[in-house]
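Input record (one chain):
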Amino acid sequence: MTVPAGEAAVMPTYARYPLTPVRGERLTVWDDEGTPYLDFAGALGANPLGHGHPAWRTAIHQQVDTLDITTNLFSTLPQADLARRLAELLPVPDARTFFCNSGAEANEAAVKIARTHGLAAGRPAIVALEGSFHGRTVATLAATGQPAKRAPFEPLVDWFRFVPPNDAGALERELGDGDVGAVLLEPVLGEGGVRPLTPEFLRAARATCDRHGAILIADEVQSGLGRCGDWLAISRADVVPDVVTLAKGLGGGLPIGACVARAGLAFGPGEHGSTFGGGPIPAAAALAVLATIEEEGLLERVLEMGARLREEIARVTPSGLVAEVRGRGLLVGVQLTRPVSHEVVLAMIEEGVLATEAGADVVRMSPALVVEPEEIDVAVKAFAAAVQHVEEAAPWPGRTVR
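The corresponding structure, as predicted from the sequence alone:
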């Protein structure tokens, strides 16, 4: 790999993998030396249709030729159509959408809604989950249940309390204090190790919020829009949230986020805004994403392909390094018995497959929703070889996954 000439001028906020992709098609990317790789990193879930899907490209080209950008002081057809489609597809009652540019911005909007609701009700606190990740703005970082990420910037806002995932009793105790106006959770903790919340906990969270007059906010930035086999991952538990945040896969590769709330919680004029939020081009791309997921039957396919990926990983890696394979749909995490996820991901790159880390001991795979069975088999073979390579370099006596 050659490092791009301008890389030294980029703030080093990411520890780069040794690869510079220059071209992509479906689930394959090519680096600057022409070497192909199977992309199971999937842009952390932001690439639901694969690289350059024809419907997505056509929608963008047509919109570029029609209207590129205007201010949100005017309505635009793509934004209005996208808001209508989200209201039709999502279970949020009488939904209203605020459009922005990222998941962090969507969660920032949700936090403002929670504060507005909570302050009016005399319940200004917000409960989130230990291990969660909600963004890197000041408020969303304060909401993130990972102390190491918060520590360099503290003191942050003091609105947030944390309870363990799947601990309904702890959640009830926090809300029972009488000053909590909202619960913010990821139905599947993404950066926290790809940890699905149980249906029982999600249903308990809904019931607890209802008892105590709090609103339930589902951060579906990574888990929503088909990634886990439904439009919302929380719907797998038959739970309807008051507010939902979306981003990543929504634009199919273009930056767009959305905070979707029931009408009684919606912002009014002057309460929030975004210059670029829901612009015509990313909104047109998002409409193409939603239409393609429906037309190609990807929700059902995701469940089938996700099950195959998890089952095959467990079957072909009888390794002391693999403790658990978990996830929902095509958001899959492999729990390792020691903190070598970075080494495994690097070894997978050598095998021609891209993946990412979700913590020091979890390898994450989030391929495009259009992935084929044969591509899953290739990725699993690469993962097994990578694990073997890491084990041979540093043997580890652990249990075997069959």
